[in-house]
Fold each of these.
Amino acid sequence: MHDPGGGALMGSPPPPPPPSPPARVVLGALAVLLFAVIALGLGALHSNHLETRLTTAAATASAQRSDRYYDCLSAQAHTLITPSDVVYLPDPTLAAWTTLTKVVGGWAHVTLQLHQANLALTLQRSTHPGSCDGNDLVTVGHAPGGHIVIRSGS
Amino acid sequence: MSPAVTVTVTMLVLAAAGLLPVLLLVGPRLVALPLFPLAGAALCGAAAACSIALSWSLLQWFVLLSGAAFLLSLGVFIRRPERARRLLLGLRRGVRPLVALGGVVVLAAVAWTLRPLRVPSVGFDSRAIWILHARWLRQGHTFELAAIRNHFLVLSHPGYPPLVSAVMALAWRVSGTSSDRVAVATVAVLNGCALLVAGWGIVEAARRAALRLHPGAGPSRLVTRPRLLLGVGIVLAALAVLVAGGVVGTFATNGYADPLWSLAAVSIVVFGLVL
C-alpha cells in the first residue's frame, strides 16, 4: 500500500525539490505576463470608456423615454382590456405586433383566431395630448345591442 | 419596497435556497459566496419548468425544490460525517488575508462594471422575451401553458430556458410588484455573480499554482514566490473582469439573459476542465 509518510518514518531523507526552470523559460513567462497585463490594462481602459458612455445623461433620457412609452401603453391597455377578454391583434406590421405583444402578451388572453375574440386591439398614430409618444391603443368590440364600439386608451 | 431592497431580499432568498447544496458540492471556499444565489436561481428555473409542465405555481415548486435540495444535502452530510467535519474545519480556518483581499478586489471590479445599472434601461429582448415570460410565470400553470402553446406568442420564443424569467417572477413575488426595473436589476446582480465566479477562476488558478511552487534560485525566484504569483493572479482577474464588463456592455444591466449563460459557460470550462 502506498504510504506518503512512510519514507519519513523510516528515516530516509525527504525528496529533493524539483529543479528550477531554466532562465530563458522564466524570462519568456515574464514577457508573456507583461504582455497580458498591458493588453488587459488597455482593454480595461477601453471598457471603462464604453461603460461611461452608457451612463451619460442622453442614455438615461433615452431609457426613461422608452420606459415611459411602455408604461403609458400598459396603463392604456389595462383600461381597455379586462382579464376575461379574448383579444385579437389584427395589426399586420411586425413592429406593431412586437409592441403589442410586449404590452399585453404577459397578462391578456390573445389569439390569432378572430372568431374566438371579443375585442380587437390596434396601435394607432395619435396627436392627442394624452397619447403615448404619438401612439394610442384602440379597441374594437361589440356592444350588447350588436353595435360596434371603438374605444381609445388615451 | 424599493428596487434595491427587493433585489437584496431576492438575492438572500436565492442564496438561502442554494446555500447547503453549494457547501456540499464546492465546500467552504470563497467562490461559494456568489454561487449561493446562482444555485438558488437554478432551483428557481427548475421550479418554473415543473410549474409549466405539471401544475402548481412557481413559488410552490421553488419552496418544494429548495426544501428537497436542503434535505438531500443535509442527508449527505449526516451520512458522511467526515464531509461535515471538513466543512466545519474549513469554516473555522477562515480565509487567508491575501485571498480575502483578492475577493475584495475582484468584487470591486465587478461592482464597477455594473455602473450602467444606474440607468433604467430595459433591453428589447428583455421586454419581448424575458419579462414577458416572467409575467406568464407569475400567473400560474394554466396561463403559462396556454401562453407557451399560443401561436400568436411564438415570436417571443416560448421555448427559451425559464431560469432568468423565473428569477424575475420570484423577485416580483418578493416585492409584491411587477416592476420592469426590479426584474432587470435582479438579473443584473445575477450576471455580476456569474462574472465574479468566472473572474475568480484566474485567482484560483494562481492560488493552485502557488501551492505547487518550491522556492527557486536565480531568475526563477521572481516567479516562484507564492504570494507574488497570487498577487499577479488577483491583478489579472480584476483586469479580466473589467474587460469582460466592457465586452458585455449594456447587456449586463438591461435584463438580457445572454451574459448569465455565457459567463456560466466560461466558469464551467475554467473550474470543470482547466482547474
Amino acid sequence: MQDHDDKRLEALLRERQVPETPGGLAERIILAAAERISVLPWWRRMQGDIMGMLVLQHPAAVLASCVAVGLLIGAEAAGLADTQSVDWTSFLYIDEGDWL
Amino acid sequence: MMTSGDDTDESLMIRIRDGDHQAFSCLVRRHTDRFYACAVRMGADSAEAEDVVQDAFLKIWARPDIWDAGKGARFTTWFYRVVTNMVRDRVRQRGKLAGPEVLDFYSDSAPGQDVALDVRRRQDGVEAAIQVLPERQRAALNLCFYEGLSNREAAEIMGVRVKALESLLMRAKAGVREALARAGVLDGEGAL
C-alpha cells in the first residue's frame, strides 16, 4: 500500500512542468559579459593579467618550499658567519714582528 | 582556442580564468536552461530567475577565481550552490514563495472538466504543494528529484550531512503527499 502510494506520488511529481527558459537568455548573458570586457580600462586589464600571473596554484607547497630554502640559506649563512668570526678575531691580533 | 562540446566544465573554467570569452559562451549556452529551471523550481518567479542566472554567470566572468579547482568540487555542484543561495536571498527579500498565478489558477479550476484541464490542475497542485514546503525541504526535493543529483551532491550543495538530507527529503515527500491529498489531487476525483 505504501509502495503504491509512493509510486502515485512520484508519478504526480514527474508531471510538474519544466520551466521554459525565456528566448535568448544565454545570448544576453554572453553579450553582457562581452560588454564588460570593453568597459574595463587598459590598466585594469593589465592589472588583472599581472595578478593572474602571481596566483599560486599550490600555496601550501610553495610555503613549505620557501621554509625549506630559508632554513638551508640560514644554515649556510651561519657556517659562513663562523668562518668570518675566526677571520675577525685573527684580524685583532696583528703580528707586528720586529717593526716596533 | 576553439571550444567544443567535449570540453569539460572544469577545463572551460580554467580558460575563463585567462579571459577566454569563447569558453565563457560555451559554458553559458550549456547550462542556462538547467539553472534557469532550477531557479524557478526553487521559488523564483521568471524575472527573478533570469536575473539570478545572469548575475551568477557574470560573477564567474568578473571573478573566475571564486571557483577553486583545487578543492575538487565539480563546477555544476558548486554552481548549484551559488544559484540556490541567490534564489534563497531573493525569495527572503520578497517575502513570499509561490507565484500568484499558480495559486489563483488552482483555486479557480473545477475538476473533471476535460483531460487537459485535469492535467493542468494536477500540475498546478503539485507546484503549489512544493512551493509551500519549508525552504530546505523544497531545496532537497528539487535537487534530488528534479535536478537528478545524488544525495551526497545535494547534501554538499546544501551544506548538510547526507542523513540530514535524507530526512529533509522524506519530510518533503510527506508534506507534498499531505497537501495533494488535502487538495483532492492525490486521493480525490482528480487522482491518477
